[in-house]
Specification:
With about 270 residues, this protein is α/β, with parallel strands linked by helices. It contains 9 helices and 6 strands. It has helices spanning about 5-15, 15-30, 45-55, 60-80, 100-120, 135-150, 165-180, 195, 245-255, and strands at about 40-45, 85-90, 125-130, 155-165, 210-215, 230-235. Strands 3-4-2-1-5-6 form a 6-stranded parallel sheet, with helices on both faces. Bound molecules: farnesyl diphosphate.
């Protein structure tokens, strides 16, 4: 091979950026635009292990996790996912070392400040679910601001689950409904799935179609227990900070190759 041919080969054929780009186009071409999950939920796991493997502080894992949040949010816009929900902080995460909780809350505030432009650019509406009153007042204020500023955006709803726990959500729902029964506003016979849905944090969101969890863990971890009733579950070993568009497209393709029967037989579909 001549030097010129070798250079051409290295630059254009084996250039990692071009290889990744080609793979992206190949995956994107295969995605069926008509069966995109309407609601994608993600348990973003593995930030700590990512940092540890690189000899870094855990906070660096979370910081790099925000880059993956940006990439995946943009990828969802690109393929027209209307609802994306990210598990950013669970009720159980309050039990982490104080310094890590503080760092995560600071990261939330700085990310919100920074990403408002991106949300607007892509016409994304921000939403938050969870016991938001438990968040530090700075985080509550920033969240309220960004939610207000993006409320008229229509392309995608990005929901951050913050101080969120599904059992807490269901407990709160039962309390609210019981109180209405006690006051005579609802009779017990009228309690149905729709009414329960309407009392959940997720009342404005459809059921989850696809749940992705990164980092090799295969658990639901108190996330959207009611809303995941018929979701397809997808687990990957990739750690969240390493999770890319291509990984997401692979997950979508895997989802599109599944038969969702919702309790029916194949023949009935
Ligand atoms: C789980 O990894 C991740 C979290 C508890 C936090 C998720 C937060 C981010 C991705 C960054 C901030 C996000 C926003 C929206 C600002 P882990 O720490 O449990 O990892 P490990 O299991 O490897 O320890």
């Amino acid at each position: 091979m001549s030097l010129r041919a070798l250079l051409f080969h290295l630059l254009l054929v084996e250039n990692p950026v071009i290889v990744i780009f080609k793979e992206m186009s190949r995956l994107l071409e295969q995605i069926n635009k008509d069966t995109i999950p309407q609601h994608l939920a993600i348990i973003m796991d593995g930030n700590g292990r990512w940092a540890k493997a690189k000899g870094m502080f855990r906070s660096m894992g979370h910081e790099n996790g925000t880059k993956a949040v940006r990439e995946i949010t943009e990828a969802c816009v690109e393929i027209n996912v209307p609802y994306l929900t990210l598990y950013a902080f669970s009720t159980e995460n309050w039990n982490r070392p104080k310094i890590e909780v503080e760092l995560l809350m600071r990261l939330l505030v700085s990310s919100l400040k920074k990403e408002i432009k991106l949300l607007d650019k892509h016409n994304i509406k921000l939403n938050a679910i969870g016991n938001l009153d438990a968040l530090p007042s700075k985080a509550q204020k920033e969240l309220r601001d960004v939610i207000e500023k993006t409320k008229n955006n229509t392309k995608m709803t990005l929901t951050l689950a913050l101080s969120y726990g599904s059992r807490e959500e269901i407990t709160k729902t039962i309390q609210e409904i019981s109180l209405k029964v006690k006051k005579g506003l609802i009779s017990p016979e009228n309690i149905d799935e729709k009414l329960i849905n309407n009392h959940l944090y997720t009342q404005d969101l459809p059921d989850v179609d696809l749940l992705i969890r990164t980092s090799g863990e295969q658990r639901i971890s108190n996330f959207l227990l009611w809303q995941l009733a018929y979701a397809e579950l997808y687990f990957t070993d990739v750690l969240w900070p390493d999770y890319t568009k291509n990984h997401l497209f692979e997950a979508i393709l895997n989802y599109q190759n599944r038969e969702r029967r919702f309790g029916k037989t194949s023949e009935q579909l």
